[in-house]
Amino acid sequence: MMSRLSDTALRWLAGALVVLAICFALAILATLSGCSEHRAQVAVQSALTAGAEALSSADRVVAHGIPEAADAARATVAAECPAPCADWSPRYREAMSPWYDATRGLEVAAEALRLAQEGLDIWVDTGALPGGWSALCVDVGEALASLLELLGACGVDVPEILHRAPPIAEAACRVAGQYAQSAEVTP
Amino acid sequence: MNAAEIVSIGAQLLAVVARIVIDAIEARDVSALRRVGDVLPAGHALRSRLALLAEEERARRDLGGGT
Q1: Which of A8, A115, A118, A153 has a CA positioned 20 to 30 A from the CA of residue A23?
Q2: pLDDT at residue number A157
Q3: What is the pTM of this model?
């Protein structure tokens, strides 16, 4: 009797082990396939955050340089058109145009990063990238690259982190494109 | 229901639970990272924009005669 019970128990144990092995194999497979996409999402988030930090650093540099440039611009305008000057505004804006352009470039890049963040959030939540993700990614890289030129026109020391931001953004876009599902959802 | 079926169902439940736990860990990893909104201020509140506005106001007072 004991022998028959032991044989039955062994068969159950063997069967259970086989089933468990199959289930764990499937679970590991599912985990590995999910990991690659998860790693891509982490890489994209890291790139976007690095871009935002580069932008924040550039914003501080520009804000620091504006008062001195504005002093020079006011002096120039005052020499050409003593106060009260009727058209001080266009003269002043012309003298300060590189700084207005740089600030606008900062805002464009910030908006591009925010839109890309929204796209990443949709990807994380739904498992599929939103429509137009590729264009969003390209916009981030182009906005950061354009900002580099605009900062150069201001004559400020461009933060090193900003030099690295465009290629990081481009790499993140490629990673996202490789791992994202082909089906896209509308945001 | 025999023991093999019970073990099988138990194993499947275990796999599902493992998947849920892994998903939760992965989701926490992504959400633990800083986001764009955590670094950049909202709207047009960039330091440079605020500095430009402040200097423009000074220019209006100095050059425009306060008009």
Answers
A1: A8
A2: 87
A3: 0.73
pLDDT of B7 > 80? The answer is no
Phi-psi region at B13: left, alpha or beta (left = phi > 0; alpha = psi -120 to 50): alpha
CB contact (8 A) between residue B33 and residue A45: yes
The pLDDT > 70 percentage for chain A reads 81
Residue A98 neighbours by CB distance under 10 Å: 18
A45 interfaces chain B, CB cutoff of 8 Å: yes
Asked if A15 has any chain B CB less than 8 Å from its own CB, the reply is: yes
**Nearest Cβ partner of B36 from A49, A84, A103?**
A49
Confidence of residue A135 (pLDDT cuts 50, 70, 90): confident
Q: Residue B37: its chain A contacts at CB < 8 A?
A: 114, 117
pLDDT recorded at residue A34: 57
Residue where the block lists tokens 């201020």: B41
Amino acid letter, residue A36:
S
Q: How far is A181 from chain B (nearest CA, A)?
A: 17
